[in-house]
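Exercise 7 asks you to align residues with tokens for two separate proteins.
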Amino acid sequence: MGDASRLAELLRKSGRGGPLNWIVSSHNFEHLPNPLSFLQDCGDLLTDDGLLMMVIPDQRFIYDRFHPHTTTAQILRAAAHPHNASTEAWAAFEQAGLRYHLQSPDGAPKVAWNASVHSDRSLATSRPLALHHARLKALLTTDNFRFAGHRWRFTPSVFELLLFDLGQLQLTRLRTVQVHPTRTSDFLVILQRGSGEPMPEPAAAAHRLALCCRIEDERAAASCLCQDQARRLAEQELEIERLRGKLG
């Protein structure tokens, strides 16, 4: 038990310093105060053919839907400026301020959902922003608060861009082997130790641009407008099939 941002230290203290063939991180990475430290430790602890397998929530289909996605700069800043009681309070306020749940017809709130949010459901917030702000002001006067919620928010391409950037900067020894598409509200990432050599320019710039465009497409696909259009298209296709059957 402990902060996985200090994975190598925790393993050493338990007498399990590596090398490791396999590391599993499920719904952990988005909580870490220092994700870069975790990735660097995993890169040091794994064997050359060892794998890091991560299950990460897709922010489009959980209560983080309306938050901006995590950037490489934010991850680097967290590594350079260790968290304290103040940053913990602000992290709590940041999440609470844009946290929404899915209100089902039966009134039961859901914190995760799939890509098909039907019209008989709606997104709702449980508390006014003023209450979260009042809690922030109270927390800023304490020195022992520890935030346990989501600090970082990803889609598959957002995570892939982060790993690419860290590799280009030679800040991690890990490379992306595979990013599986989101199923329900999570996606699976498989990482392995790589050569550590950055991709040469201008190929790197072209790859980053492609990833940025994929991020844009992912966010657009989750919007209410695109979902409505997809439903209408599906209805039109069904109607066309019905008419074809009627005519022939």
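Second protein for Exercise 7:
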Amino acid sequence: MTSDKDLSHVRQDLAPSGTMRVGLNLANFLLVNMNKATGEPEGIAPSLARELATRLGLKIEFLPYGTPGEIAEDATSDIWDLALLAVEPARSEVIDFTAPYLEIESTYLVPEKSQLASIEDVDQDGIKIAVMNKSAYDLYLTRNIQHATLIRSSSMDESFDVFVAQQLDVLAGLKPRLLNEQQRLKGSRILPGRFTAVQQAIGVPKGKTNGANYIKDFVKEMLASGRVQDIIDFHGIKGVSVAQISS
């Protein structure tokens, strides 16, 4: 059990002002939404952050970001103390991540007359893939796509609009979001399987060792106790899975 003395080191390292500044990725509607009445964030990510702040005896301030790429860009600017976003090798250069606490499948949506039948069919010369710029799945595709062309947009909404307006071959995205988009586009199909699973975690700017170690233990405890699943169930979120506990 962590002593109060140890917690003081964690608090000083993580949030020396006494207020924990938390970066939230508003682009991921599965994890966070803004309450229009109160202006406060709600969902899985804010709930985890609030529980962590309570345990540490810290006040909390949420910093909403439009995209995860913007969060990562601020990692070295002392703007946020911790953030909830997807784990990615490029981001790990400046962010110290916990183990993932949940996963979200990423796959492809294709239009009605598409001849593409599988995930493996997509990476061909001439195929154009609509994707949200600097999303976790964009970073994955950037590393792995060898023949198809990625057409990047600034948001999920814009990537769908570009996919339709420019009659692109494929729309990449989180499966739960693509299920919604499928309802908007008559005859469209989601290809079976996934090209990756986006793993969501808590990140701390590099150099905050005491804070990072405490949060890593916090996430392991939340997973082992079933608390992550409880939070998912409380918010009624479908399409996400609790991450496996790492050994």
